Fold:
Amino acid sequence: MAFKNIMIPTDGSEYTKTAVKKGLMLAKALDAKVTAYYILDQTAFVNIPMDATTLNIYSLLEKEGKEAVDYVKGMGEDMGVEVEVWIDEGSPVRRIIDASKDFDIIVMGTLGRSGMSKLLMGSVAEKVARLAKCPVMVVRAKEDVA
Structure:
């Protein structure tokens, strides 16, 4: 199977930058197109009434999302890789899994949690790797990022 359509989910954190770089390197090597995907996590707002403070937080998350996908797009331009940006809303795990049917591979980062932390927090990357409809390449963040 040729990987011509690559999804790189990003939250804009330092932890995803290693995965962004690896995903773009893969795209460059395979002459593939990349979609930088940011999901505004609405699960954080489920039990909070919508007021001015909530709307301000929502606006900050939207800004963060734009910066996250623009980072991938800029790095892609520097490498000569075509990058489309996509900002969505919902549960990150669910949205990535739903979108996975339209991609050849997903390249995403992980914090590399283990033990109790993983048990309590769960892992978006681990859930996506188990449930996605395409292959998933999980890239561990560099140790010195934390």
Observations:
- The chain has a mean pLDDT of 86.
- The longest strand covers residues 33-41.
- Strands lie at 5-9, 33-41, 83-90, 105-110, 136-140.
- The longest helix spans residues 52-79.
